[in-house]
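call fold(seq) -> tokens
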Amino acid sequence: MTNSLEDLAEADVILLTGTNTIENHPVIAQMMKTAVLSGKTRLIVADPRDISMARYATVRLRPRPGTDVAWLNGMANVILSEGLADERFIERRTEGFDAWRESVERYAPAVVERLTGIRPADLRKAARLYASADAAAIYYAMGITQHSTGTDNVKAVANLAMVTGNIGRPGTGVNPLRGQNNVQGACDMGALPDFYPGYQRVSDEAARAKFSKAWGATLPGTPGLTVTEMMDAAGGGAVTAMYVIGENPVMTEPDASHAAGALEKLEFLVVQDIFLTETGRLADVVLPGAASVEKEGTFTNTERKVQRSARALEAPGEARTDADIIFDVAARMGSPMPRLSASGLMDEIASLTPSYAGIKYSRLAHGGIRWPCPDTRHRGTRILHAREFARGRGKFHPVEFIEPAEMPDEEYPLVLTTGRMLYHFHTGSMSHRSAALEEYVPEGWAELNPRDARRLGISEGMPITVTSRRGSTRTHARLTPRSPQGVVFMSFHFGAEAVNRLTNPALDREGKIPEFKVCAVRVEPGASG
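ret:
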């Protein structure tokens, strides 16, 4: 996030897209609702489904799934054509404006309506509201990124913020909401195939030399594979061993049956986790890890705040901290490393990662610190890009609308989109062990528009089979106008109704993120298959 959560209340307008915030980020949703109900903040919600946050919205847009670039460019088209751009900000802080402006001229409201289904009057209303605010913020989540055009979607969001000057001030910004705790921290620490900690590229010779010296190893200069690419490589025999820590790809990967088959082909699979997951059941060796409340360390949350976590419980049985396990595995493989404490690990991070340079473990005892924090006198950074962008000038990127990788046809006439629900978390390896949550929501369902259901001869609660080109899953129907006609929604929390058997592994060409949010399916009465 470019901005902190505390200045959310300073936004005059919030554009919320690709996030079912009440169910996925309920604490942040409460902050948004408080701001709207105070009378200060107005809300624009753009989502194919009629999500709960929409009831608080001044403007509601319901684009066809996978058409985000079109409507974002359409908002920019209205802003430019009606003279609502922040020309001073554009002149002083950005580059590439003329080429981008030419590209969005093709996205007049009538064109956008044909592509997205959004009425021109609603698009204009949203654009005027966002551009006319003194401070407007964009919040988004995986409904924007989990597409074969996810990188283009994010660029279109950034273009919209820059053309209106809504960057670098309280109540503004481009603010992605992370999908799990410490996803931000994991990325910050280099859990990406092309970066060392602090987003220092593996292809950068100086960065590679620095980390090679610190870690006593010769590091490669070519990026590795993303998780989805690893599954393809394992299935083809190019990857023969895998060490999985705190992840459950049998449930989370698109075309999950392919992922499970790829893992089964490995010569050796190690899974390190706090519970025996679906992936763990395929492992040759399972290493029991300690849960977050059973170890010392830090988390970095969605607003870049590094926070210290204290041990509250002893780990049960043979469970050990992830760090202790990794220290021992490294030693047994002939590459011993210093057995550092949580404080010592933080010191190493600070020594190698400029954005964390001033974050000491002892400082975190008094509260969290947002990076970048360049030295120990610095209090952390509440708002990014206040004076200039990291690259100097912000660059406008022309992006064109491209249809999703898989579209409905006669055989698979409906669009499936996936997401989460309030009562379960991720693959359910923790939340399904809660008796209260299991009693309240013991199984999943497929959300169908009542018009589609009538046409298919499906009634409320009926067993159904949902099928894509990759497989089938059985569930039961929930009829609701929350999903627009032609769209089916399912969550991915339930192993018995594993929706990711259906999803498309098509990747974004730059970010390599799979297209979880759009694939073509058919729905049939009865639990066949």
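The longest strand covers residues 471-479.
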